[in-house]
Design goal:
This protein is mainly alpha-helical. The chain has eleven helices and two strands. The longest helix is centred in the middle third of the chain and has 47 residues, at 186-232. The model is unreliable at 1-9, 235-240 and 329-364 (pLDDT under 50). One of its GO terms (molecular function) is angiotensin type I receptor activity.
Amino acid sequence: MQNITAGATDGIELKCGMSGSHKLIFTLVPIVYGCIFVIGIVGNSMVVAVIYCYMKLKTVANIFVLNLAVSDLTFLITLPMWATFAATGYHWPFGGFLCKASAGLVMFNLYTSIFFLTALSMDRYLAIVHPVRSRRLRTVVYARVTCVVIWLFAFLLSVPTALTRDIHHIKNSNTTVCGVLHPELEAEAMRLKELRLAINLMKSLLGFLVPFVIIITCYCLIGRALVGARQIQKSTRSRDDEVLRMLAAAVLAFFLCWGPHQVFHLMQVLTQLILKDNCAVVEIIDTAMPFTICIAYFNSCVNPIVYGFVGHNFRRNLLRLLRCSPRRATGPHPSISSKVSGFSFRTSEALSLTTKSKASSDVK
């Protein structure tokens, strides 16, 4: 509810009233948040436990998936507060510090999740399309350094969001909300407006569009490589299809979860810049935003399914975890992406065979 935050912290009066305030939102959104919280906590905790207990962190994919699960867990701990915020009619009873911290963690999870998904996509591209040449880059050391860079970069990008949030008292409804600052002084208001515009643009570009283009590009190149290899090795068709289904599910989940929210987020930015006094448009956006946010937050539940539970080895280790089976002292620990990595070398061989066959035909 961006439009409810214009004014000073000692009490503000809204031009459009408490837009987006509907009983359906106050009832449905907390229920959805509660379901996401339970499913996400259980799913991501299982991912962390399975990787920690039964899979050594000696593969790049395992390291990225573990960090992705930890990122989702850090965000999920804020959902009970946001559920309370919605259930009480957008009343924030937790104080200014938790308002800033919770808003910052939401943006922090947005960036870390998408950055780790992008890193995982690039790793899958290198592993499948360039398995031999990428060995020097796809090491545990590089993966850990990449994770540290992602955490730090995402933290820096989320700090402005936390600094521009605070609690406000709404005179129209006698409610205290957690929202964006808007000072009364014109000079400060102009600077804050420019900062908010920069934050929103970064959220759209760095938080969705640029990573999505990279992910789509990686998976298109992977798909082309797998299709080319399948023409040479007909016996691996089922494995090709399984890998393609997993990659397609990852892309589809990413787009469906974050796409609607990013569309309305761009509309919200345009409204603030052009149609800020059009209460009808503000009402539509503020009504739709809670539902798009629910869909976006659902990505924290989808990640464990797409990147963990699809793998046969992960399911087997999950059953071992649920049965409280002890860890094996010896023997290799399978990777979450073992099927993909194992097939990558056959893909490289098939692609080289294709190149050789074309070269021989040219000689003839």
